[in-house]
Structures are given as C-alpha cells and as structure tokens.
Amino acid sequence: MGNEFRVCDECKMINIKTLVPRLKEIDPDAEIETGCQSYCGIGFKKHFAVVNGRYLTGVTEDQLIEKVRKHLKK
Predict the structure, then answer these.
(1) pTM score > 0.85 for this model?
(2) Cα–Cα distance, 41 to 4 (Å, whole number)
(3) Are 5 and 49 in contact (CB under 8 A)?
(4) At 1, is the pLDDT very low, low, confident or very high (cuts 50, 70, 90)?
(5) Helix or strand or coil: residue 59?
(6) What angle do CA 8, 41, 7 make, to 5 degrees?
(7) Each residue of 26-62: pLDDT tens digit?
(8) What InterPro entries has UniProt attached to this entry (predicted)?
C-alpha cells in the first residue's frame, strides 16, 4: 500500500496549483484526494495536508513539504 495525500481545495491558506504538483514530485505513485477535509479552522491560518491519515501543518508551504517528507511510508 502506497502513500495517500488528502488536501483541501477550499481553505484559504492552501494553493492547490502549487501544493499538488509538489506532492506528486515527492511520490508520483501516491493517491491524492482533493476536497474539504473538515479542518477549516487550521486551514484558515496554516498550510495543511493529511498524509497517510495524519494531519500535518506548516506556517509555509515549504515547511509543510518538509514535514510531509518525514511522514512518508518507505
């Protein structure tokens, strides 16, 4: 079973046009689901993604990507 990324396409802090390509670059075979993740309070203030069922946040998209890399399945 591979990695799974879930990202919100409605939250203010998330730019789908930049985040999804970066996630695909990290793991081209991962399943990426976009849509509301019911994490609106955080999504208004920080970048976030759900990686393999775990919510990860970052003040910047770069910080989020670094956290994503640390939580990937090998």
Answers:
(1) yes
(2) 22
(3) yes
(4) low
(5) coil
(6) 15
(7) 999 999 999 999 988 888 899 999 999 999 999 999 9
(8) DUF1450
Q: Do the beta carbons of residue 6 and residue 50 sit within 8 Å?
A: yes
CA gap 47, 62 in Å, rounded = 9
Strand positions, DSSP E, the chain: 4-7, 31-34, 47-51, 54-58
Six-digit token string for 25: 């670059």
Average pLDDT score over the chain: 93
H or E segment and range at residue 61: helix 61-70
Interacting residues of 27 by C-beta distance below 8 A, sequence separation 6+? 2, 3, 5, 72
